[in-house]
Each structure stands twice: as C-alpha cells, then as structure tokens.
Amino acid sequence: MAEHVFLPDEPPKPLRIEYDGILYDGGDWETYPVRQGWHSEPRIPKFHQGKIPEEYHPAIKSWLYFGLLHCVFGDALDQGDFLVSEEGDGDGEEKGEQRQYLTTRNLEKYMGSAKEWKKNGYGPRAVEIVGKVCGQLPRYTPYLSPQLGFAIQLLCQSLWYVANKRDGPQEKPAHVVNWMFLRPNLVEQMVQNGWCPLDAEKCRQAGGEVDTAAYLLQLVRTKAAWNKRDHAQCRKTECIADNVDESLYVTRHVDEGCSCEHVQADIPALHEILEEGGIPLVEITPPEEGGEYTIKVVKKRTSTRYASISHVWADGLGNPHTNSLPNCQLGLLYERARMLLTDKEYVPKYENGPYGPLHTGAARLAHRAFGSKRGDDTVLVWIDTLCIPHAREVRGLAIQRIRDTYLGAYRTMIIDSEIRQVHPTSASSLELCLRVIYCSGWIRRLWTLQEGLAAKSRLYVLLADKAVNVSTIADELLTKHQKGKIPLLQERIVYLAVGTWYSYFQHTIDYASKFERFVSFVASPFVPGEDLSQEQLVSWNWFNVATRASSKDGDRPIVLAGVLNLDVGEILSVKGSDERMRKLYSMLDGFPMNVLFLAGPRFEDDGMRWAVKVCRYTAEVQYLGGGPGKITPRGLHVTGIPSWVFEPRKILDMRRHREEHDRKAWDDWNDLPVAEDLPDNLLLLKTREPINISPDETPGILLHEIASARPGELHNCALVSLQTTEDDVHYARYLSVGTIRAFDFSKSAFPEDGYLIWGSWEELQKPEWVVG
Questions:
Q1: Which branch of life, at top level (predicted)?
Q2: How much is the average pLDDT of 435-457?
Q3: Per-residue pLDDT for 646 more than 60?
Q4: Is residue 564 within 8 Å of residue 537, measured between CB atoms?
Q5: Are residues 15 and 78 in the same domain?
Q6: What pLDDT digit, counting tens, does each position of 97-132 carry?
Q7: How far is CA 644 from CA 197, 394, 419, 761, in A?
Q8: Cα 367–chain centre separation
Q9: 330 CB contacts (<8 Å, ≥6 apart)?
C-alpha cells in the first residue's frame, strides 16, 4: 500500500494494509448501502448509529475504498489492480496462509496523462466523491481498522490533489481539509513504528498531509548496533532520547571492537588562542606506516580553509572530561574532511538565479586552487570535542565564537549515527532531505541549529561511505518541481520538505555573503525580499529552538541569541536559565504577540508576566506567530488582538460554586439582566491552572484569533486583570493562558469547572493593551 508516493522507485519498506472486505458491485455509490442492507432507503440507516452488525462491515470497507475508485474510473477499473496476495510469514500470522493487501502501485496508470484525465472527466467525479467519502468517514470510522482508514484518507488526498492540479483549484470543504492532514491516530502509528513523538508531531504541525506520513512510514530506519536508545519516554513536546548523563558518557570508537589510544589536544594552546581573541583549529596529520594520527592546535586565519564538524554528542563523538578523541575517530575525520576540502565533487552548485553558473564556476576555481596550495597531507578541522576547553572562563569564550566558527568554515559536515547507515546510491534527494529533517538525531539537538544555519550551502551530511551536500537539496528539489520533473503524486511531499527545510535553515538575520542572500531570495518562495524584522526571526527560530532537545534549559537562550546575531557574551555573563532568558528579553525591542497564548511558566515580577521562562514547549507544539509586540518596562504592548473586558459580577467560578456551595454568587449571577438572553450571550472560559478572580478585579480576555475558526469553536486565549486605562491603552497584569468558547445549556451539560461568563462574540473589541 502507498507505493505511489515512491514511483518510479520502489518503497524501501512497503506498507502492508490488509483488506478483508468484498469487491465493489459496480453500481451507484449512493444506493450501495441499500443494496447491501444496512440502509432501508438512501440515507436512512436501518440500524442505530454505531451499532451496524459485523456482517455488514466488509461491504462498508468496499464502499469507502473501492466504491471511491469506481466512482472516478468507472467500468475501466479492475479492482484486482489494487489488491495483492501474499503468503503469511509466520510472524503473527499462519505461515503459508494467503492474505490480501491493498496496493496503489497502479494508481498512476489509472490517472494517466492530463489530457486523458480531462477527456474522461475524472476531475469533477474525483472532487465530488472525495467530498462524499470524507463526509462519511466520521460516521464509519468505528467499522474500519486504523490502517484501512489511513488507506482511504490517502486515496482521497491523491485524487483530490490531482483533480486540483489538472482541473484548477477546487473549494475544499472543512470536512475534506480535516481528513487530508495528519491526524493524532496517524501520529500514533508513526510512534508505534519507532518514531519520536516529537518528530511525528512536528510533521503534523508543519502541515504534513497523509502522503508525507505514508512516505516516512515506508523508510527503513536503521540504528548503529551499539545504539540502544529509544523514544519510549519522549513526549510530543520534547525528545529526551539523546540527552546525555555526562557521568556515564562513553567516547566511542569507530568500530566497537577497537581499543586504540586517545590523542590529546594541546590544552594550553587552546587557552592561549581563545584568550587572544582567536578561534582554535586542529591540524590533523596522517600517520606514517604503523603510526598514529597526530594533531596540532593552530589559530584560524582569514584565508584558512577548514571543515567544521556538527555532530550528536549522544553518538559518542564527544568527551566531557578532556579534549581528546580515539585515534580511529581522528582517522574518520581526516579522511572525510580531506575529501570535502579538496575533491572537486564537493564544489557547491548553484542552479537557481541568473548568476548561479557564474558563482559555481568561481567556487570551482577556488576549490581547485586550494587543493594545490596546501601541498601537504594535513587537514584542518574544528570539532567542539577538541577545540572547546573545559575550563569555564575560556570555554565561555569558545562558545561565544561558535557562530563565527561555522560561518568561517569552508565546509560543515554532519555526523549522525542513523544517517550514517544510509547508502547514497539507494537514497533519492527527497528521501535524504526528509531523513535529515525527520529521522536524524542531529535535527533534534539544540546546539546543531546555529551550526546548520551558519553553514548555508556548505552543509554536508556523512552517509555510509561518502558525504553529500544536503543544503542544496532543497533548491534542487524546488528547481525540479518548477520544471515539472517531480512525479505528480510526490509533489505535495516535495513541497512540504522544501518548505520545512527553508523554515529551518534559510531564515537568518545575517547571511554569509550578499550573494548567498540574493540566491536565497530568487530561489525560494518562502523568503521575502525585504529585510527580515527581528520579530519575524524570533517567530521562526523560537519553534526551531523550542522543539530541539537539550539537557540544560540554560543553553536555549545562548543558542537563540546566536541565531538572532545578538551578543552571546551578555547571555553567558549571567547564571541560571531564568536569568539568561530575562537577559535575552532585555536585548530585544519587540516580541511576537502570540507569546501571550503559549503555555509554560512565566516570570512573576511586574512588567514581565507576559514572558515565558524557557524556550521549550510544555503543552502543545505551536508556531509563535502574530504581529509584533513592543517590549516596554510595563509589559508587552500589543495591538489588533480581539478582546473582552468584563465586569467581575458577570463571571461565575464554577469550581468555587460547586465546592463551596456559593449559592449567593449563583443567584447574583443568574439575576443579571443579560440572563434573559440565554443561551446567546454565554461563554465558557477554562484556564490552564485555577485562578481566583477577586471581586475587585476587572478581568480581560485576549483571544488568539484563528481565521478559519467559527465563534462557537474552542479558541486559545489569555486571561488578564485590567489595572488601569491611560490614553485609551489598557494596562493589565497577566494571569493565565486558557481556552474559551460559546456555551449553550441546551446542548452541553452543566460545566464541572471553568468560568461561566455573560458575554457574546459580538462584544469583542480591539483596543491597545500593555500586558505585564
């Protein structure tokens, strides 16, 4: 099943979705339930909802899957083209037993060319039947296995996309949208297949549709034999699998059976270079016959060409005790770095923009000149294990210069234990891009963010036997997409991969060169031409930092400051995670206003209650959007946010009413004149933690506006206490994040908790607020 997302290639690990339904009878789709007996008349169920007897379930499966195909392709459909029989392998099923599985290997054949598609009128029929099937899925999901439900969604998504591509954009009803994108059950299926819950959730939040999940689930994921880490304890907001306990850390050899000696860097030389304002590198010299690699600490010069290494500490290439690595690891670094620095295969290629060929030619000449210039066998490398000393004072100096270190590197090489199991000859560009984005430990680690950003087009990932340029893959895929060279049924996956890559690695305030900045602008539809504001950069990179793992929250403001091109030294000058975040805020002029709707611990002093204490998600993964808010001594100044201000007597605390039997409060609230308009003027507010609203307070509710949501639906909001109003600006104290929705007694049970409020959606206004 789902082979179509890999065509013309074969999926490495095809999905096996069993089909135990019947074949479709070829008749009218609407009346099929009547013919099969679970409806008495069209659209009139014979049985109560949710209680259709099991004998009808095979027909339901046929109706929603093969009936869908028949409505589009008519009598030309051979249902056998979408089924394959296989013998059981004895693993959970009887060996030799024949079982039927769904396949989409022939789906592209039925879709044919655009000309045939239009000639046969497939588009309108596809749009109509997909809308009907998506409308029925909520009702019939209880009779489908999660796998078959996924198969139906995938078929709907593929037909809908092709119809929109070939026949023009169609209006997409809400129920169709709902079934196109990854749902929690698909995220859970990915987790059951060994995925980190955070990776699966990031894919869903990035707008991944079901075809992306199908692609990812068919990748073979192989770990190094020694890697016993799993994601059993990870959550959808945080990966902890690669967090390191330094007291138990093991610096690994290239091969597990190796016992070669460590080679030590010159620590006094590291200190001297850093104290003089420089950046230390290690010069690796290969051994003479029977000897060992040697290293010499040297100072980085302006014209120095070196390879910087970006790796996952949990993979064993670090050393928490001293600046040394095993001789075999030096050998690996030497061989791969030497190829990156000298082999003509590793000259960057710029295919986009009018000056791409010119820039590529200049890079090739410079690369060749460097290879002949050195005239010896040494290689210059920067890796934190050897180049960042452990003494606190000089360590801080090295950390401040990490961004400059990666900006100045001629090549940056990613070393990730899972990606190293991939062979370049068997992996497409799309697969490599998605593996780095969603399968690598490297993408999940905090410190690798600024390393990847600084590397720009010089970012390479080490596979099983060679390194490939992963930073140019997005541009390569985008170019193929624009030229129509991407298979039709992979286009959505490619677009998501490219968009995700750009959101991670293109949005920086300071590009390595003006030319790089120009190339990024002309090559990418995701990067605006004008200068990026600080708030935009915070929005993009907050998600990048918050979804990455670190055993120390105090490191997060360091990395975020580095990405934003702020003075990292100021962050390092203070101790503690909270104080470092406070310092970071003090270095910014503004902040995205949707921080008001983020869950998480906040500062408790006046003027800072709007600010979360840690750049990490504690409840839900969400992008930090919204317009810019201005940071002032009295709080975050925001405009344009819809909000209410309520009299205290219009709010009833249900928890206190139930627990304390506060009958008077209920009577007073219920006797308000607005009570006559029940249920049109009633809202239900729930906060993340209980808040006692004093009778002397004037509550305000700021609404997280969502364009596609209706007033009756659940909205995120922030509860504040209005302190004063000056020159039409409301000054308020932040209380809590929560949710709010319209409440109807006739449709909902009496709430157990939360706050019932006399108020309506029509009362929303957009005054200016300063929330502190």
A1: Eukaryota
A2: 89
A3: yes
A4: yes
A5: yes
A6: 789 999 999 999 999 999 999 999 999 999 999 999
A7: 36, 52, 51, 9
A8: 35
A9: 263, 284, 293, 295
CB atoms within 10 A of CB 36: 17
Q: Is the dihedral of CA 48, 50, 53, 55 positive or negative?
A: positive
Is 296 strand, coil or helix?
strand
3-state SS assignment for residue 564: coil
Q: Which of 412-416, 587-591, 646-650 has the lowest mean pLDDT?
A: 646-650
CA 507 vs. chain centroid, Å, equals 15
The whole-angstrom separation of Cα 612 and Cα 96 is 59
Residue pair 193/390 in contact (Cβ under 8 Å)? The answer is no
What is the DSSP secondary-structure string of 334-383? HHHHHHHHH-GGGS----SSTTHHHHHHHHHHHHHHHHHHS-SS-EEEE-
| End-to-end Cα separation, the chain, in angstroms | 54
Domain contains 413: yes
Is 196 within a domain? no
Q: Do 506 and 594 reside in the same domain of the chain?
A: no
Q: Identify whether 218 is part of a domain.
A: no
Q: What are phi and psi of 398, to 5 degrees?
A: -65, -40
Give the helix/strand (H/E) hosting 230: none
**Confidence tier at 357 by pLDDT (50, 70, 90):** low
pLDDT score recorded for residue 277: 96
Does 764 lie in the same domain as 689? yes
- pLDDT (0 to 100) of residue 366: 55
Residues 558, 672 within the same domain: no
How is residue 702 written in tokens? 């700021």
Q: Are residues 764 and 697 in the same domain?
A: yes
Most confident of 160-164, 197-201, 666-670, 694-698: 160-164
- Report pLDDT for 680: 59
Residues 741-771: tens digit of each pLDDT: 888 766 666 777 888 888 888 889 999 999 9
Q: What values do phi and psi take at 419, rounded to 5?
A: -65, -30
- Considering the domain architecture, whether residues 727 and 758 belong to the same structural domain is answered as yes
pLDDT tens column, 259-307: 999 999 999 999 999 999 999 999 999 998 778 999 999 999 988 899 9
H/E segment holding residue 519: helix 514-523
Residue 539's domain comprises 534-638
Q: How many residues does the chain have?
A: 772
With 0-12 / 13-18 / 19 or more C-beta atoms within 10 angstroms meaning exposed / middle / buried, residue 570 is middle
- Alpha-helical regions (H) of 267-326: 267-275
Higher pLDDT, 370 or 268: 268
Structural domain includes residue 221 = no
User: 455, 441, 469: which is closest to 347 by C-alpha?
Assistant: 469
How confident is the model over 500-510, as a mean pLDDT?
61
75: its two tokens:
């009598």
Give the domain-ending residue among 638, 672, 692.
Answer: 638
Per the structure, the count of domains in the chain is 4
HEC string of 68-106 equals HHHHHHHHHCCHHHHEEEEECCCCCCCCCCEEEEECCCC
List the alpha helices (DSSP H) in 37-145. 57-73, 107-111, 114-119, 122-140
Residue 356 Cα to chain centre, angstroms: 30
Summarize pLDDT for 371-417 with one digit per residue, the tens. Answer: 545 557 899 999 999 999 999 889 999 999 998 999 999 999 999 99
**What is the Rg, in whole angstroms, of the alpha carbon atoms belonging to the chain?**
30
Q: What is the Cα–Cα distance from 143 to 57, expressed in whole angstroms?
A: 6
Could you give the CA distance from residue 538 to residue 745 in angstroms, rounded to a whole number? Answer: 42
Asked if residue 672 has pLDDT above 80, the reply is: no
- Residues 504 and 376 grouped into a single domain: yes
Question: What is the SS3 assignment for 122?
Answer: helix
| Chosen domain end from 135, 152, 180 | 180
Both tokens assigned to 265? 């860097």
Reference 433, options 521, 494, 488; nearest CA is 494
Residue 435 pLDDT class (50, 70, 90 cuts): very high
| Domain shared by 457 and 330, yes or no | yes
